[in-house]
Amino acid sequence: MTKTDVICENLPTKLCSFAVASSGKRCVLENYKNAQGKTDYTCKTSEVVVEKLSGYIETNQCMNACGVHREFIGISSEAFLSSEFTARLCSSACYQNCPNIVDLFFNLAVGEGISLPALCQNQKENHRAILEILSNGGATPDPVAAPAPSSF
Q1: Predicted TM-score (pTM) above 0.90
Q2: 112 band by pLDDT with thresholds 50, 70 and 90
Q3: Three-state SS for 84?
Q4: pLDDT at site 126
Q5: Which residues have CB under 8 Å from 131's CB, separation 6+?
Q6: I want to staple 54 with a disulfide (CB 3.0 to 4.6 A). Which of 6, 24, 86, 118 is the partner?
Q7: What are phi and psi of 143, to 5 degrees?
Q8: What per-residue string of b and e applies to 74-94 under the rule 16 or more CB within 10 Å gives b?
Q9: Closest CA to 61 of 112, 107, 100, 20
Q10: Whole-angstrom Cα distance, residue 21 to residue 5?
Q11: DSSP string computed for 88-136
């Protein structure tokens, strides 16, 4: 966790996403067309306030553990549709150690009517079920065969 005097507009774009300004507001990476008509990026201060994390720039360790990237532009609830992303977000390495990222996705989930703790619990239960199947050699019980129709 890196705490310092953070002003979103002064951050290099490579540090913008998943940073929180000293004011307590989230930094967001935005794109725009520059004078040459090419896409360029800038870091802006959002109106979203984060409790207890002011002046915070997310660590590379958390970025990797949670499966997020610094070049994220606009974060969408569609991320929850990816089981790979959800597995990384719900992993102990992320969920227990990266409060900034978890807070962001927790609030995003709430906005979509999703409970992140319930989603993570479901992810863990599904993972355990898959491990159980794999530990049994991948075999699943045979379905009960229906008797063949008799032809008289």
Answers
A1: no
A2: confident
A3: helix
A4: 63
A5: none
A6: 24
A7: -70, 155
A8: ebeeebbeeeebbbbbbbeeb
A9: 100
A10: 8
A11: HHHSHHHHTT-HHHHHHHHHHHHHTT--HHHHHHHHHHHHHHHHHHHHT
Provide the residue type at 89 as one letter: L
**What letter does residue 8 receive in the DSSP assignment?**
G
Q: Determine the pLDDT at residue 130.
A: 46
Distance, CA of 8 to CA of 129 (rounded, Å): 43
- Looking up tokens 């159980």 gives 132
Nearest one of 96, 95, 93 to 109, comparing CA atoms:
95
Length of the chain: 152
Contact 32, 83 (CB under 8 A): no
